[in-house]
Amino acid sequence: MYFFSIDDFQMRVIALSLFVIAALTDLADGYYARKFGVITGFGKFMDPLADKILVTAALISFIALGYVSPLPVFLIVGREFVITGLRLLAAYRGVVISPTWWAKVKTFLQLSLVGFILGYITLLDGLVYYNSPALELFMFDYVYYFNLLFWLTAIVTIWTGIDYTVKYFYMLKTILK
């Protein structure tokens, strides 16, 4: 996100490339862990945590750069902190909370949205950099659409938080006694 925050086409290309590499290695890691049966408790905990860090850094940068309003980001990041806390409580009790199918959909949506916005802004910067007449095709109120996509992602994100809370309510109830 450091590279993305620099208003320069080449820096944004580096940022986009690093994000894509991080997202693809995350997918590959999960795929190979399942394929070769090397899923560990550490991996079940750290993989979602790494996803949260990657996405949260991007979301906060998007607010700072004016690409999205803070409220949907606040809801997404808030959910991530709550569920991470739930995972920590579960780990304290010796229970590993594996990501649900909906949580995987949520992660896919978040990573895709971040990648899309990084890609779109990088494309705009490239069109400006090369003084392309195609720039006019991409100049519209894209922030409105970014916010719409963030709200949809926030809804799915909150839904997965409710899903986890309902599934592990019994454990929370025992720990908080």
Give an overview in words.
The mean pLDDT is 89. This protein starts with a helix and ends with a helix. It has helices spanning 2-5, 9-35, 41-64, 70-92, 101-129, 135-138, 142-167, 169-175. 81% of the residues lie in helices and 0% in strands. Helix 3 (41-64) runs antiparallel to helix 4 (70-92) and helix 4 (70-92) runs parallel beside helix 7. It is elongated, with a radius of gyration of 18 Å. By secondary structure, the chain is mainly α.
Largest β sheet strand count, sense and barrel closure? none
Range of helix content: over 70%
What integer value in Å does the Rg equal? 18 Å
Give the termini separation: 41 Å
Q: What string, H for helix and E for strand, traces the elements in order? A: HHHHHHHH
Q: How much of the residues is beta strand, in percent?
A: under 5%
* Mean pLDDT, all residues: 89
Count of helical stretches: 8
The secondary structure category is: mainly alpha
Number of strands: 0
List low-confidence stretches: none
Instruction: Tell me the overall shape.
Output: elongated
Which labels suit this protein?
single chain; about 180 residues; 8 helices
Summarize the structure.
The protein has 177 residues and is mainly alpha-helical.
What layout of secondary structure does this protein have?
Blueprint: H1 2-5, H2 9-35, H3 41-64, H4 70-92, H5 101-129, H6 135-138, H7 142-167, H8 169-175
Helix pairs in contact: 2-5, 3-4, 3-5, 4-7, 5-7
